[in-house]
């Protein structure tokens, strides 16, 4: 299951007295374990519900991390776009400053009779 990245919640039931096997199983994705001699059928639904709650918590945490990573990437992209806009704004401002200074320079020389060349 671990190698196949199977996300099915697993409750390990072990007949062997050793807990090393159960610990190894949990390292590979089992959510919990119980030894066979400790199993009581009245408690089984509680154990299953606990495993399911852990599964839901893990999925929610993964989704939250995914959304946070997506948000970080979008913020970085927006920062790049903002920098481009600032660059364009500075270019436009420089161009308008030149036009403004030229208009001030020729302001007194333009009269209604001034003949401007026509653009093609």
Report on this model:
The chain is rod-shaped, with a radius of gyration of 35 Å. It has one domain (11-105). With 120 residues, the protein is mainly alpha-helical. Strands 1-2 form a two-stranded parallel sheet. It contains 2 helices and 2 strands; from the N terminus they run βαβα. The model has no long low-confidence stretch (mean pLDDT 84).
The average pLDDT score comes to: 84
Strand-residue proportion:
5-15%
Helix percentage? 55-70%
Main pleated-sheet profile: 2 strands, parallel
The Rg value, from CA coordinates, equals 35 Å
- What string, H for helix and E for strand, traces the elements in order? EHEH
Shape, please? rod-shaped
**Helical segment count:** 2
**SSE-based structural type:** mainly alpha
A few lines on this structure:
The chain is mainly alpha-helical.
For the structure shown, list the relevant keywords:
single chain, 120 residues, mainly alpha, two-stranded parallel ribbon, 59% helix, 7% strand
């Amino acid at each position: 299951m671990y190698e196949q990245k199977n996300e099915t919640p697993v409750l390990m039931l072990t007949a062997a007295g050793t807990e090393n096997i159960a610990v190894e199983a949990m390292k590979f994705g089992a959510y919990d374990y119980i030894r066979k001699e400790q199993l009581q059928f009245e408690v089984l639904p509680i154990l299953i519900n606990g495993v399911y709650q852990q599964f839901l918590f893990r999925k929610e945490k993964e989704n939250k991390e995914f959304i946070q990573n997506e948000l970080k990437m979008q913020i970085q992209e927006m920062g790049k776009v903002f920098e481009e806009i600032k660059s364009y704004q500075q270019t436009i401002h420089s161009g308008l400053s030149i036009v403004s200074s030229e208009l001030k320079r020729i302001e007194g020389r333009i009269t209604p009779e001034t003949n401007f060349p026509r653009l093609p």
